[in-house]
Amino acid sequence: MIQKKPTNVLEAMAGGASAGMQLALNVGAMLIAFVGLIALINGILSGVGGWFGYGDLTLQSIFGLIFKPLAYLIGVTDGAEAGIAGQMIGIEISG
């Protein structure tokens, strides 16, 4: 693709604004898609977990179990708080 150089300052500003707006819309669309995907995964996990008696099974609760030992290593000594800290660590790492 051959790119044309802007002929004046106004054309350069308009081109930059257009490119910036396109980038912002792309980032917004990806963010909406990612949040939707997380909600879909949580819905599936909750439905499948309900079959086995774990209706509150979500991606965040799985992250809490996985990262609970890391929370202990960081210094969270209470068991319930370590689970919550593990959830926060997992959420931050995943997105």
Automatic annotation (TrEMBL):
Pfam families: Nucleos_tra2_C (PF07662). Residues 3-92 form the Concentrative nucleoside transporter C-terminal domain. The keyword Phosphoprotein does not apply. Keywords: Membrane, Transmembrane, Transmembrane helix. One of its GO terms (molecular function) is symporter activity. One of its GO terms (cellular component) is plasma membrane. It comes from the Bacteria. The chain crosses the membrane at residues 23-45. InterPro entries: C_nuclsd_transpt (IPR008276), CNT_C_dom (IPR011657). PANTHER family: SODIUM/NUCLEOSIDE COTRANSPORTER, SOLUTE CARRIER FAMILY 28 MEMBER 3. This is Nucleoside transporter. It comes from Haemophilus influenzae. The gene is nupX_1.
